[in-house]
Specification:
Blueprint: H1 3-12, H2 17-36, H3 41-53, H4 56-65, H5 70-87, H6 92-102, H7 114-130, H8 135-144, H9 149-159
The structure holds fe (ii) ion.
Fe (ii) ion binds next to α2.
């Protein structure tokens, strides 16, 4: 585990404990799913980095536009993630792939790669709780989004779906 990533993320989101907690949850869920699904080492490294940086665009979008927009986050997030992860000495291939994932973590159609699938599932698992989603929303996400056995099991264990 790269604790420097978490500490730097907390510094980036200073004063916003909800976002720090959310990010920690997403990273933990992503790493658990990745390990259980036997993802290779590169995929685990990419997910560790992508999860930490996945919502960094939110802060800039809120500062610039005063509201949160998934589309704007996907546009502005990758550049912020790249700069952040490079500063923390992640390797360039990890930076590039993590930035791509940050730019696609609200894109749910046509998910082809395991790292993309896992990041989306981890973000949903955290958001079910953080955004107080109701059971109808959780069931819909479970049916339409979740594909990994580990992600599905976590949905089942946490929410009985
Ligand atoms: Fe998120």
């Amino acid at each position: 585990m790269n604790e420097h990533l978490i500490l730097a993320m907390a510094e980036y989101f200073a004063g916003d404990p909800k976002q720090v907690h959310h990010t920690v949850q997403v990273q933990t869920f992503a790493m658990v799913i990745a390990q259980e699904e036997k993802a290779d080492e590169k995929t685990c490294k990419v997910l560790e980095a992508a999860a930490v940086a996945h919502d960094m665009g939110v802060k800039v979008v809120m500062e610039l536009f005063g509201e949160s927009s998934g589309t704007l986050q996907e546009e502005l997030g990758p550049g912020i993630a790249e700069e952040f992860l490079r500063r923390l000495h992640c390797s360039e291939d990890v930076v590039q792939r993590a930035a791509w994932l940050v730019g696609h973590h609200h894109t749910y159609d046509n998910i082809k790669d395991l790292d993309h699938q896992i990041l989306v599932e981890a973000d949903f698992l955290a958001n079910f709780y953080d955004e107080k989603m109701d059971m109808e929303q959780i069931r819909a996400a479970y049916k339409n989004i979740f594909k990994t056995e580990t992600g599905k099991k976590l949905c089942h264990d946490l929410y009985g779906v």
